[in-house]
Amino acid sequence: MNGRIVVYLVLIFLSSAGIFYFLNFFKVIDVIDVEDTSLTSFFESEPVEREAFENQDLFLIKEQENQKLAESINIQRDELDLKEQELRVREDSVNQQLLEISEERKNLELEKQSLEKEKQEQESYENKVASIAEQFINMPPERAVERIVALNDDVLIIDILNKIDEDARDEGVISIVPFFYSLMPEDVAARIIRKSSITF
Questions:
Q1: Angle at alpha carbon of residue 47, lines to 44 and 49, rounded to 5°
Q2: Measured on CA atoms in the order 128, 132, 133, 135, is the torsion positive or negative?
Q3: What letter would DSSP give residue 185?
Q4: DSSP secondary structure string, 21-39?
Q5: Burial of residue 189, with CB atoms counted within 10 A of its CB: 0-12 exposed, 13-18 middle, 19 or more buried
């Protein structure tokens, strides 16, 4: 008997709740404000607040990442600027060295040309001395001495007489140079002999 009463009471409660909900749904009565209840507000506000916090965290994380990226870019830019300065200094140093090498090469080329010119002039002078010496040997002594004195160049005269002495030694004959001195005017012969004894 008691069990039936309980069942009836449950059915009555459920029926009343269904009618109450139905009337409230169709605004026949306005007992429960679904949008304004603390329960609804609690369950609906929690996801919104969580989403807001998550968005804020994502924004902060993104901002930190962007800041780190900017710092990394600035560091790389500074490193590139430093390397560029080092390369510029190195390039200036290399250019200076190339300029110095170019100047040195130019000086060496000029010196080489000067030595070649001197060598050619020396060879030409030696050939000239040898040719004149041969001519004087083949001349009568008196005429040869006249030509020697007429040269009016003591250095050339000494070189010619030395060449005549050298050729005589190579041929194993007596040099005619002492005889040439005897035919010269005394002052000219003394001057030539004195200068020839000096080592230039």
A1: 100
A2: positive
A3: -
A4: HHHHHTTSS----TTT-HH
A5: middle
Look at the pTM and tell me if it is higher than 0.90. no
The single-letter code of the amino acid at 27 is K
Distances (CA, A) of 60 to 51, 67, 73, 129: 14, 10, 20, 102
Label residue 70 by pLDDT band (50, 70, 90).
Answer: confident
One-letter amino acid of 19: I
Kindly report the number of other CB atoms within 10 A of residue 160's CB atom.
26
- Say if CB 136 and CB 160 are below 8 A apart: yes
Which residues neighbour 23 within 8 Å (Cβ) at sequence distance 6 or greater? 29
By residue count, the chain amounts to: 200
pLDDT category at 22 given cuts 50, 70, 90 is low
Per the structure block, which two tokens stand in for 184? 């010269």
What does DSSP assign to residue 151? T
